[in-house]
From TrEMBL:
The keyword ATP-binding does not apply. It comes from the Bacteria. Homodimer. One of its GO terms (cellular component) is cytoplasm. It is found in: Cytoplasm. It is an enzyme of class 2 (transferase). Gene3D superfamilies: Aspartate Aminotransferase, domain 1 (3.90.1150.10), Type I PLP-dependent aspartate aminotransferase-like (Major domain) (3.40.640.10). N(2)-acetyl-L-ornithine binds at R142, S281. Signal peptide: none annotated. This is Acetylornithine aminotransferase. GO terms for biological process: L-arginine biosynthetic process. PROSITE patterns: AA_TRANSFER_CLASS_3. Keywords: Amino-acid biosynthesis, Aminotransferase, Arginine biosynthesis, Cytoplasm, Pyridoxal phosphate, Transferase. It comes from Oceanisphaera avium.
Length: 404
């Protein structure tokens, strides 16, 4: 098929209609810039939804991929491999965890975490201990189990009977959580900064109280750090600046810098419940993914990059404040590090997609988090020049929306 015939119309002919992608098709990226089929240049403030933590075609990642691609791509889990063992060693050395499990996505990492929590509770406490508590507007993936744990019925309704013993309460509402927890609770699942739900940070006292409640009821605390992990908030993992550690942590998105990989981290005592044969993944821990993830992890896990995230957050906050001084459309900018949400004020309720569309017309890629939040999740190493130019494009987009 010649390049000319690959058009946006082809999507409608050959792809299942669960997505409605933009009219432009990106074909090349470098750093925080992307080019489409017509050679138009875009600035990327979306990062593939917080995935491209080092931008596009970062030389360290390209080098790791190229080197490993000529050695070994895949072996079954009847065997182990060097990149997986190196990556696991580095992840447990850098975190609370003792053990790692690899898979291909955030949903799979959460699926493993939830299955492990149920298995652990069953083995140690009995069948009554099966309740999983999660949070309204939370997001944990699209498998049937993870989408049910996620707190957005719009994603989980319409597929028949759901997995049971899953309950939801509001984020940051301690009394609601206290009212529903008991000795039947096997796990509390939370994002240490709600992403899809609107970029909501947890109250520090609240997160400590959640940890204490889990300890009181022998429930496992699971942190879904799929979006917040690997430098996104300015810490290697968000839990590190919250004063609490989870029992199980899930990671994906930025972990591979654009190459699909997921990981579940936990302690030795809890990990023991996943004995041989209890869970698995054909591609999980494959050498190609682990080699790229190791390179991404090593690059991000430095004081230079992590401190740089906080520096870049300030660039965004200053730039967005200046835009808002002129156009008065945002009530606040929420979030931490380079996971930021500009919250639309009452006048612009429900119009986040209009801002995204206008930005794309100005050759800038942004995201939304619900109908009322414009989300930014750029490369952790984006240059000041690219941030400045991108915000100038965003200002033109804002002007278009505000002026109707």
């Amino acid at each position: 098929m010649s390049e000319m015939s690959v058009t946006r119309e082809l999507f409608d002919q050959v792809m299942v209609p669960n997505y409605a992608p933009a009219s432009m098709i990106p074909v090349r990226g470098l750093g925080a810039r992307v080019w489409d089929q017509e050679h138009r240049e875009y600035i990327d403030f979306a990062g593939g939804i917080a995935v491209s933590c080092l931008g596009h075609c970062h030389p360290v990642l390209v080098g790791a991929l190229r080197e490993q691609s000529e050695k070994l791509w895949h072996v079954s889990n009847v065997l182990t491999n060097e990149p997986a063992l190196r990556l696991a060693s580095k992840m447990v050395a850098a975190t609370f965890a003792d053990k790692a499990y690899f898979c291909n996505s955030g949903a799979e990492a959460n699926e493993a975490a939830f299955k492990l929590a149920r298995r652990y509770a069953l083995e140690h406490f009995g069948e009554h201990k099966s309740q999983i508590i999660a949070f309204n507007q939370g997001f944990h993936g699209r498998t049937f189990f993870t989408v049910t744990v996620g707190g957005q019925a719009v994603y989980s309704d319409g597929f028949g009977p759901k997995p049971s013993a899953i309950d939801h309460v509001d984020y940051n509402d301690l009394s609601a959580l206290e009212a529903i927890m008991s000795d039947n609770t096997c796990a509390v699942v939370m994002e240490p900064l709600q992403g899809e739900g609107g970029i909501i940070s947890p109250d520090v006292e609240y997160i400590k109280a959640v940890r204490a409640l889990c300890d009181k009821y022998n429930a496992l605390l699971i942190f879904d750090e799929v979006q917040t992990g690997v430098g996104r908030t300015g810490a290697l993992y968000a839990y590190m600046e919250l004063g609490v550690a989870p029992d199980i942590l899930t990671s994906a998105k930025s972990l591979g810098g654009g190459f699909p990989i997921g990981a579940m981290l936990t302690t030795s005592a809890i990990a023991a419940s996943l004995k041989p044969g209890t869970h698995g993944s054909t591609y999980g821990g494959n050498p190609l993914a682990c080699a790229v993830a190791e390179a991404a992890f090593d690059t991000v896990n430095t004081s230079a990059v992590l401190n740089g995230v906080k520096e870049r957050e300030a660039w965004y906050r200053e730039g967005l404040a200046a835009i808002n001084d002129k156009y008065q459309c945002f009530s606040e900018v929420r979030g931490k590090g380079l996971l930021l949400g500009a919250v639309l004020n009452k006048q612009y309720q429900g119009q986040a997609k209009a801002f995204l569309d206008a930005a794309l017309e100005e050759q800038l890629m942004v995201l939304v988090a619900g109908a009322n939040v414009v989300r930014f999740a750029p490369s952790l190493v984006i240059s000041q020049e690219d941030v400045t130019e991108g915000l100038a494009r965003f200002e033109r987009a804002v002007a278009k929306v505000v002026q109707g």
